[in-house]
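All the exercises in this workshop are built on plain-text protein records. A record pairs a protein's sequence with a compact description of its fold. Read left to right, the backbone structure tokens trace the chain's path through space. Once this layout is familiar, the rest of the handout is easier to follow. Here is such a record, shown just as it appears in the course material:
>
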Amino acid sequence: MLPKKIAHSLLSEVQFLIILLSMTIMIAVVAAAALYLSHSKLSSLRSHSLVTADELASLLELPLYNVDNESSVRIAKAFLSSGKISGIELRSIADGTLFTHLSGQDASGIPDITRDIAAGGMPLGSFTITFSDAEIRESQKLFLSISLAIIASVLLANIAASRYIARRVRRPFQTIFSAIEKISAGNYQAQIEPTEYRDINTLVKLFNNMAGKIHQKNLEQKRIEETLVNERQFLIDVIDFLPDATFIIDTDRRVVVWNRAIETLTGIPREDIVGKGEFAYAEPFFGRRQPILIDLLDLPQPELERNYKYIRRTDTTIFAESYIAHMNDGRGMHLWGVAAPIFDHSGKRSGAIEMIRDVTDLKLAEEEKIHLQEQLLQTQKMESVGRLAGGVAHDFNNMLTVILGHTQLAMLGLPETDPTAAHLQIIEETSRRSTDLVRQLLAFARKQTVSPKVIDINDTIERTQAMLKRLIGEDISITWKPGQGLWPVWVDPGQVDQLLINLCVNARDAISGVGEIGLETANIVADAGYCRVNPESLPGEYVMLAVSDTGCGMDKATIDRIFEPFFTTKAIGKGTGMGLATVYGVVRQNKGFINVYSELGKGTTFKVYLPRFSGEEIEIATTGEQPDTTGRGETILVVEDDTLILDICREMLAKLGYQVLPAESPGEALELMRTAKENIHLLITDVVMPEMNGRDLERQLKEINPSLKSLFISGYTAEAIAHHGVLDQDVCFLQKPFSLQDLAVKVRQALDVPGTSRHAE
């Protein structure tokens, strides 16, 4: 490396060169002048020395001729003292050396002159003279002194002139220097005013043009920088306000961006993590520093990939799903992440970005959707089974009506001791038991005939406590926790008894040995969130009845099927599988819903929810006297499309003392009403028939006979006379199958109560 040169002033260097040049010229001139003067003096001295020698030779010729040595010496001394010569040696032919004087200051530039003296051709003697250059030296000294004085004066004048010139030259340049300093300080609008010097003004013009261009470039650069800053800030703002948690790392795995969403997700502010490396970004998620999804871009690790529930790669991007158990206050969090590399404009890798989305709600929604679909399928299956059960029960009720009717008619003419009577009693008992089973099917199918009342479930449970204790036995205790201020419900009290009996029997059978059954009631408000999880429910206020046990519990597969008719886990002969199916039908018929909670080895809890009754209580009148079942010869029109039922009804009514007009269809019944000579007092009709339903038939018959009274019979209630199994208030109804006594009571009630028709208990 070359040594750094010491900076110096260009103007000083110019001044020095000017002075050096002028002094060199001056010295050269002085030297030349001195050389010229010396040479001129020396030439003059040489000429003078020859003249002096000639003059001395002519003066010495006579004395030497006369051998006047004294005069010769005197002449020599006179020349010596005159200063014309500096030394002399006088010699005589006759006497030898007459006089010698040497000063030691001979002129180096003038040679000694020796002359021979002769007279008439006769040698007389000779002399040698030397000359001194003292005069020349003295003149040289004087010239040198004068020259030095001139040189010093010139030097001082040059210095003064150079200083003056420097000030004159520096003045416009100082303005330029000042403008350059302003520009270097960032003032690119600096300009130089023109000077009085044309050549300087050329430089000023060039400088001003350059400064203007620099100013324009600076403005353009500022605009570019401002645009870049705005774009960068916009990009930072976009990333910062992204709804997905986002962070960016550089190639050294240091965090450079940590947006607001990831601050919220992790609880880590950006000030605590930006600039940190060594996998610091993994710590909020996994509790330790380790490679995560963003590091898999260039660190493929099969073991690390197993930490993700799902992972997929494209050319440069990785998608993955993970579950972090400790996040979300320990409730766990499902995260969906996307990681991709970041490249600069030259294509060089500059970092990586990862975006993380909390998909916990989505996953829960998907799970909830699957759960709801399963529940919907279960509900649809139960509806389908219910429709099938209802249809079977209807047909079975018709057959049981015929069997039970004929059995009872056959028994009327037999003594009790007759062996046939015993067989008929068995048939009758079996028919009644079959009737109970069919009614359970109807309850499940929500086609059971009910007479609802406004009741307090707490009162109903209190009344059934003793009966329930006898039912479940002494080894099992019952704990009863009635809810305070329990809301009323609109339900048939008999159905509440069905619920309690079936649920308690089911709990009793689940307990092996000693155990406990808990009964509890409470007021419950179901909101929209609860209803999303329980699709059979609707938002509103409910009275909850809970029946729990400490029995063996159930697995999920059993829970999924417990409400299916005839499904049972009990041994053959120990249960029909209709108990919980009946509970399900009763609850759904009353617009409620039921939930089951069970764990194997811990027990089961059934929670029944019945809607709160918020209207006015409807009191239903009842008669305390047993109605007279004897016929008084009234005429009854019986309409039934099943001939077997029509025949047994005709025979049973005839036995009871009534006149019977049978009709196999609504059209035949209308014809009989128009053509009958006797007054028809009562219409007994099936509800569901091919041509028209019983309700429509009743309306058309009353147009002919307004005083006609009606009694509807059916295997299950139809919408023609009931809504969701609840009888219309003006309807008298007899459920199939019915006995002779049931028919006698209902017919008498229908005939004896005033009005065109009524609701019979």
Observations:
- Residues 635 and 677 are 11 Å apart (CA to CA).
